[in-house]
Structure formats: structure tokens, C-alpha cells
Amino acid sequence: MNIFSAFVKKEFFHIFRDRRTILILLVMPIVQIILFGFAISVEIQQIRVAFVVSASSPSKTSIQQLARKVDANEICSVTHWYSSVDAVDAAMKKGEIDVAFCFQEKEPHHLQVQMLIDAVNPTIATSESYYLEAIVTDFLRKQQLNTQKSSAVSLIQPSVQMLYNPQMLSAYNFVPGVMGLIFILICTLMTSISIVRETETGTMEILLVSPVRPIYMIFAKMVPYFVISCINLATILLLAYFLLHIPMTGSIISICLLSFLYIFLSLSLGLLISTVVKSQVAAMIGSIMGLMIPVTLLSGMIFPVENMPWALQRVTAIVPARWYISAMRKLMIEGVSITHVSTEIMVLVGMSVFVLLLAFKNFKNRL
Amino acid sequence: MSVLRYLLEKEFKQFLRNSFLPRMALMYPLVVLLIMPLATTMDIKDVSISVVDKDCSILSKQLIEKMDASNYFTIYRVERTYAAALEQVENGQSDIIVEIPSFFSTNIDKQQPTSVQISANAVNGMEGSLGASYLLELLHDFSQQIYPSQLELEQVGPVVSSLYLYNNTLNYRYFMIPGLMVFVIILLAGFLPALNIVSEKEIGTIEQINVTPVKKSQFILAKLIPYWLIGVVALSICFTVGWLVYDLAPVGHLLDLYLLSLLFIFIMSGIGLIISNYSKTMQQATFVMFFFMLLFILMSGLFTPVSSMPTWAQVVAAFIPPHYFVDAMRSIYLKGSTLFDLSSEVMVLVLFSILINLWAVKSYNKVE
Asked: Which of A112, A172, B273, B331 has its CA 20 to 30 A from that of A102?
């Protein structure tokens, strides 16, 4: 045990004497969580609308009323007026407008509105369509009510309630995701690089001839990084609660326990990478390139797993971040008890054991 | 000039003799473009619903059947109490609770308005609201079926129609494929150079360059050009896969795409080299680059639109080169914009590339 603590001490010296790295490791997650927690959002905040009206149009006044109504909306702004449809294409190609309104009139006081929508981003285009349609329908209906009476009331009057996230803030969804991303990348990078560097600089040879057993040596490498990750976890949770106002309704103990498990798994994964690759460059590329894209795209962080094709959903099962992020969302936002995330915990435990065993099997105590 | 040629020869030999890097530069774009577009979809499907049926009438059964028959929804289970349904949402088995009140059918028979409570899991706000809005539409349909006279106003009423331009099938993959290409370029052209100079520092070979009459600009240029080539090869693979597998050919000119990409690769490798110059160890270089990489990927509008960000974040995004490139790639690919249409983006990218690469040359110090 004495030898073990000596090794841990050595690792701590290693890390703390590289001031720049330790600074990056402790400050980076803070900046990231603040930046992304506030910045990443999918709510539409601005729709730039153009009106296409020919000079001879008879119902110009009502079109202008409509334009005023659209402009009065806090999200929409009427930015351009064109006299023919040809100008729309050019303006959209330059990215100056999002939607163009065209009008047809078969008879006076009966406007037909066609919205030309830039659909490069389909989700935004659909939301814009819903949003503007509601404004226009409302406007036209009010105009018509002046001429005819209507008392139609829908018999079924649904009321909608948004559970867990009544204001529908994107941060609720993204903060657990960003946590999943940051932890796995930082932890795997730290362990894999620090082990491979010992091999590259030749100090590994010295360690291997020491009487300490390789297993202790490896655990000693993981301890300081585990401590650093726990500090990061604490700052991230504090920031999420006080700055981003994430509810954190679940028990804080289960959130921490789950995160410890995930950090441990990520460190073991780094260990596994270090046993497979030979150079630091390869370790880095393996950790970053191999993990960055699957973790961002296949974990449900941005794109919900349920919407993917069946085969790909099976593939996502091997991405640890998927399980962590889903469990964290349940614990932090839905506030369920730890028994509800038992599947996720079982999977993460299973993965940790598997990865660790594989890493030990691969680890060569001879050069 | 011949100095540069020898330096280039050295860089290429170094790259090609590595057993790992050339293979990765080829395989990486291929794998990413083959698999990842399948994952990037926002179209919701199979939203599972827990119904709390307190009415248990023929009418409520009809409503449940109508929901089950829809493409978007599947009924997970019909419960008697809200608590049981909420339990299913907490377990992640269902996403939305529809609560049909008692007296639902009696009220409708009397033609009195009756409420239906929809509770959607909104942890993912967008998914929750989309699911709820589809359900509202379905309920509206249903109430018209059972009481059709409401239709009158709609028939004489206004007509609003939407026409979706440039991506008229609303295929989300078409939106994401050019974005994924940018993702690949950011990773390849950003990371490899970031590790390059610092690895020469760690191995010690940089000393040998420092004692030669090689100029700073020649040295940096020799480091940049190979990444240009790698980037172009990777990009060509991306274009081909996009065209063959996803049937997505750029509407605009291929030449415009290449020119713009060359400019962008130049910027990314420049950033990589700057970081490499300032770092002492590879570990430092990696963590710094990792930070910028996440910044570039999450704040450039690749996944979530920049226009949705708060104002201060949009100011940050204005200083992120990929922001302009992502926009321009999508415009060329889907709208068929020309470089002339995108002149403001191109100007900004040119400015970035000059500043960043001057900085890269300046930050390389031959004197320790």
C-alpha cells in the first residue's frame, strides 16, 4: 500500500507541475458549460420576412395591415418589399430573408397567401411555417369576422401541459448532454496520453522494473485524474444549478454516484486506448476522433436516439455517453429515483468491467 | 524555392511512413459519411402515448383507436389513473399522457365543450412541443369528425399555403450532410497540424530545423500544404459518398465548393499550427485544440442555428470561422448560391486566413 501511495504522489506531481495543463483541465469545463448552456438553443428567435406585392395590387391596404401585424410580432420582422417573385430567389441565396409572402386575389377581400420558405433547415422551416400561418390565419379571420358571423367552437378543447420543462428551455436538454461529452473526452484523453507518454519518453521502462505490480501502477495513474474529474463535476453541477437554473430535482447523491461511475468508465476507456496504440499522436487521435463524432451524434445529445433507424439504435447501445446522458436527464430534470435508471447503471457497470478486463489483458508488462 | 520542395518532401515522407495517419485520413470521412447521416434526423416517429381513460365509452375508444392508427403515435397502454401513466413516463416507456375526463362522451352528446389534458415530456423541449402539436391537430380532426358543422368557416375562410424551397421534401439529412463534411474537415485539418510541430518539439527534431537557414514562412508553408492535400482528398471522398449513397449532388458549382474549402482548410490548419507553436507538450496542444474544436462544432450553427442563440453568443459566433463556412457550404450545396452571392462570407474567410496564417508564421520562434 505504501508503494501505491508513493505512485499516486508521483502522478500528482506530474500533473501539478504542468501548470498550463492543470489550468486548462480545471477551467475548460467551466467555460464550456457556461457557453454551451446559454448558447445552444433551438428556439426560433428571428424570422426575416419579405413581402412580394405588385404595384397594381388592389388589396394593398390590407396587405400593408398584414405586414404591420407581422412586423409587430416580437420574432418576425419585415425586412424587404419586392414587386416580383424573381427577387426572392436571389435574396434567399444571399441569405438575406427566411420567408417571402406572395399574394393572389381571386375576388376583392379574399386574399390567398402563399409563403415561400427557405427550407435548407427543415425543422426551422416547419416551425416558421406553423408560426407564420397562425399569425396570418388570425389576421384574415379577424378581417372576415367583420363581414360574417361565426360561432364555431371546437367541442374538444385540449389543454397542453409540458412536463418537467414548462418553459421548454433548451438548456434542460443540453446540459446533461454536454456533461456526457466533456467527461468522456477529457477522461479518456488524460489517461491515454499520460500512459503513452511514459512509453514514448522511455520512463515506462523504469516503472516496469520497479517492484510494484502493473495493476497498482495503472490504478495510481487513474487516481489523480479521478480527483480532477470530481472537482470538475462539482463545479459543473454548481454552475448548472445556480447559473443555468437546472432544477436538479433528483437526489444529488445518485447524480454524483452515476457520474463517478461514468468517470471511472471513461478513465478505463483511456487505459484501453493506451494499451492499443503506440504513440501519443495515435492516442490523441483515437480518443478525440474516435469518440467525438459518436458521442455527439449517437448519444442522443443532439439527435434523439428513438428517431434513428432500428439498426443504428442498436449501434448506439455501445456508446457509453448514451446511457449516461439518458440517466442524467432523468435524474436531474425529471427527478426520478435511482431505481428508475437501474438499466442505465447496469449497462455502465457492465461496460466498465468489460473495458477494464480488456485493458488488463492487453497491458504488457514487458516492453 | 528548392528549400520548400525539400521540406515538403520531408513532410510527405513523414506522413506516408506513418502506419496510421494515411489510412485514417482516407477511412475517417468514408465511415463518418456512410453512417452518421442516418443518425442525424429530427423527424419524430413512434411517439408512445399513455392514455388515462376515465370515461371508458365508445367515443373514448374511438379516439384511442384514431391515435393508434396515426403514423406518429403508438399507444403504449391505457391506464385508469394519472399516477400509473406518469410512472410510465418516468420509466421512459412513454412520452405523452393523454387524459380523457369522465363525462367526455356525455358532454359531447350534449354538445358541451369538454377538455382533454395532454401532458408531454418536455425534457427535450422541441420533441415535446412537436409531439403535442401533432396531437392537437389529431384532436381537431377528431372533433370535426364527430361534429362536422364546424367546417363551414374553414371553407369560405382564408387560404394560407406554404411552399418549401431548396429542400422541398424537408429531408433533414440533406441539411446535415454538408454540415458533417465541415465536421470532418474541422477534425482532420485542425487536429493533425496541432500535433505536428509540438511533436517535433517533444522528439527534439525541431532543433535540427532551427539550426538550418530555413525561413519561418517556408517552414510553416511546408507544414500547411500537406494538410491542404489531405483536406481535398477527404472532401472529395465526402462529395462522392454524398452523391452515390444519399443522392445529394451540389446544386451550385463544384469549383466554388472546392475553392471555399481550400480557404477554410487553410484557416483550420493555421489555427492548429498556432496552438502547436504555443504548446510545450502534446497534452497541452490537445486540450487547447479540443476546447476550440468543441467551440467550433457547437457554436458554428452546425447543429443548432446561430440565429437562435442569445445576442452575446452570436457575437462570439461571429469570431468563429466555421460559422461562415457552414453557412456557405449549405448555401452552395442546397440553394446553388455562387461565390458572388456569398461575397460577404468569402471576404470574412479571406481575412481570417490572412490574419491567422501571419500569426502562425510569427508565433514560430527559431530562438528558444
From this structure: B331
